[in-house]
């Protein structure tokens, strides 16, 4: 049955090419595509179950096309790259399986993981049984930790390899904050790490990965990978690619990539809120059938990364000092028009923060700050109370501070409900552009001079649309608070007067001495003197 079908396709292909004067025989390349992505903060008490994936992104089969086609996302990139290849005369068929991602939070539950991995493997097995499996393109993170499995991506790739078989090409895109392991390397053909932070290139890396896997399948390249793992686990606060030590490291990566035989070079800062043996920064190189070249590249860049490790550390401002500065007429008079942004980096939901710490809000209210837009406070109970009161109503609340008592008490407030929304908006900033996201039912509460966006689903306010969707023009405010570590910069920097990173308690604090590590290898910079 299959042979007949294949013959027919080959005949068509021959006829097609004969018309164009090309004699090469082609048959479709079958690519299974899937995404299982989570950045796990093991210090967060919020477990990541399937509901957390449902709350962010969970699509199956053909649903992947509906959700991601036309978006600047990893899966969107795979879809576009396959279409580009088609237009260039290569026959490519995508077999979608699952796309799952959740807001960074605590350990992924075993049940959720079994479901996600099981769905992916099932898709691969079915494609294989149907004779439709040439390659697997995965969108992974690299810092996912499952209850009982520290190296989740290593486990995913090992299982994918087991089901797909040795002869199947397996590639993955990875986040710059991945804790990459030797095990991951040994079960995949090539990795494509993000080259930007804030991450504005998941789409481009997926396009690259898809193009490369077709080259592997067609026998044009034979990738080999090397990894250099470093005994450093710096905070993520100075891992931007526009300034700081990453600039030089990525310039080196680009220089090597320009050499013949080099397929990809990725620099991974790592994710420090992972107390696991695999934690740490790394460099990964993919070379064409040349292990020595890949090894040379990772050693060279790895040495530079180690030498410049001190530059990953950065002082941040205490809350009272930051608020005083933002309120001062001198600071407001300087530079271009626009708000001073106070970044509550430790409560970045994008790094596993609970999104409900209160120290910065309490400080703003105590100091009488005015014209402040505050994003966000995760408090579904407060949203419900606001809904009951209705727009224009008054609410008396103990706001936030419910997840980790040590990160600040609830703030007792009397506020006015200014707006109620369903929390849905479409990203317009450079990250995940065009993607419809939801913070769940939301309420804008006016408390003193602070307008607080209170939400039901945890999400870092990385896109300024979160303000606009409740009627706030973020560029017109005097002060903005964003509970985000760095990804907000892509969307906010164009209109910000100044950005101040504030040192509040939180599960994603760049001050790593607050955390008790038990499983990382020691010594480890910057926790130990090395
Ligand atoms: Zn990241």
Please characterize this protein's 3D structure.
- By secondary structure, the chain is an alpha/beta fold.
- The protein is 32% helix and 22% strand.
- It is built from 16 helices and 19 strands.
- The strands form 4 sheets. Strands 12-13-16-17-11-18-10-19 form an 8-stranded mixed sheet. Strands 2-3-1-4-5-6 form a 6-stranded mixed sheet, sandwiched between helices.
- α7 links the parallel β5 (169-174) and β6 (190-193).
- α4 (74-87) crosses α8 and α9 (245-257) packs antiparallel against α10.
- It is globular.
- Zinc ion binds at residues 175-177, 199.
Throw out a few tags for this protein.
8-stranded mixed β-sheet, alpha/beta, binds zinc ion, disordered N terminus, 19 strands, 6-stranded mixed β-sheet, 530 residues, globular
Short description:
Helices cover 32% and strands 22% of the residues. It has 530 residues and is of the alpha/beta class. Helix 4 (74-87) crosses helix 8 (202-217).
Q: Cα distance, first to last residue?
A: 64 Å
Mean model confidence by pLDDT: 94
Specify the helix fraction band: 25-40%
Instruction: Count helical runs.
Output: 16
Shape: globular
Strand order, sheet with most strands: 12-13-16-17-11-18-10-19
Kindly state the number of beta strands. 19
Relative strand content = 15-25%
Which structural class is indicated by helix and strand composition? alpha/beta
- Uncertain ranges: 1-24
The main pleated sheet reads as:
8 strands, mixed
């Amino acid at each position: 049955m299959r042979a007949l079908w294949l013959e027919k396709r080959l005949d068509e292909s021959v006829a097609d090419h004969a018309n164009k004067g090309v004699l090469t025989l082609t048959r479709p390349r079958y690519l299974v595509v899937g995404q299982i992505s989570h950045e796990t903060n093991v210090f967060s008490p919020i477990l990541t179950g399937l509901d957390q994936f449902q709350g962010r992104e969970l699509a199956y089969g053909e649903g992947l096309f509906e959700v991601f086609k036309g978006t600047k996302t990893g899966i969107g990139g795979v879809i576009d790259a396959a279409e580009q290849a088609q237009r260039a005369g290569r026959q490519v068929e995508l077999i979608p399986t699952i796309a799952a991602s959740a807001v960074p939070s605590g350990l992924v539950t075993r049940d959720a993981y079994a479901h996600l991995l099981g769905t992916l493997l099932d898709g691969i097995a079915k494609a294989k049984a149907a004779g439709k499996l040439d390659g697997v393109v995965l969108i992974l993170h690299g810092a996912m930790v499952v209850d009982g499995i520290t190296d989740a991506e290593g486990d995913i790739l090992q299982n994918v390899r087991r089901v797909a078989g040795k002869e199947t090409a397996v590639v993955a895109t990875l986040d710059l904050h991945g804790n990459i392991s030797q095990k991951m390397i040994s079960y995949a053909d090539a990795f494509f790490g993000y080259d930007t932070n804030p991450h504005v290139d998941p789409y481009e890396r997926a396009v690259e990965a898809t193009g490369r896997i077709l080259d592997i399948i067609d026998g044009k390249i034979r990738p080999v990978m090397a990894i250099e793992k470093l005994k450093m686990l710096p905070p993520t606060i100075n891992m931007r690619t526009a300034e700081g030590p990453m600039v030089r490291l990525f310039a080196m990566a680009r220089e090597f990539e320009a050499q013949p035989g080099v397929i990809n070079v990725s620099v991974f800062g790592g994710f420090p809120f992972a107390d696991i043996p695999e934690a740490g920064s790394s460099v990964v190189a993919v070379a064409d059938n040349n292990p020595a070249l890949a090894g040379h590249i990772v050693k060279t860049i790895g040495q530079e990364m180690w030498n410049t490790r001190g530059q990953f550390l950065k002082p941040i401002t205490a809350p009272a000092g930051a608020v005083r500065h933002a309120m001062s007429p001198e600071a407001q008079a300087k530079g271009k028009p626009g708000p001073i942004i106070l970044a509550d980096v430790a409560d970045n939901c994008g790094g596993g923060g609970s999104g409900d710490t209160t120290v910065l809000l309490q400080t703003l209210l105590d100091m009488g700050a005015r014209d402040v837009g505050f994003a966000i406070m995760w408090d579904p109970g407060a949203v419900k109370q606001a809904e009951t009161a209705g727009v224009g109503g008054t609410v008396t609340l103990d706001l936030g501070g419910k997840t980790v008592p040590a990160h600040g008490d609830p703030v007792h407030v009397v506020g006015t409900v200014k707006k109620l929304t369903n929390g849905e908006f479409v990203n317009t900033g450079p990250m995940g552009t065009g993607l419809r996201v939801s913070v769940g039912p939301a309420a804008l509460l006016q408390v003193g001079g602070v307008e607080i966006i209170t939400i039901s689903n945890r999400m870092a306010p990385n896109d300024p649309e979160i303000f606009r969707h409740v009627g706030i023009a973020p560029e017109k405010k005097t002060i903005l608070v964003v509970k985000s570590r760095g990804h907000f910069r892509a969307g906010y920097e164009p209109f910000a007067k100044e950005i101040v990173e504030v040192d509040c308690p939180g599960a994603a604090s760049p001050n790593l001495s607050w955390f008790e590590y038990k499983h990382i290898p020691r010594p480890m910079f910057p926790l130990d003197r090395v």
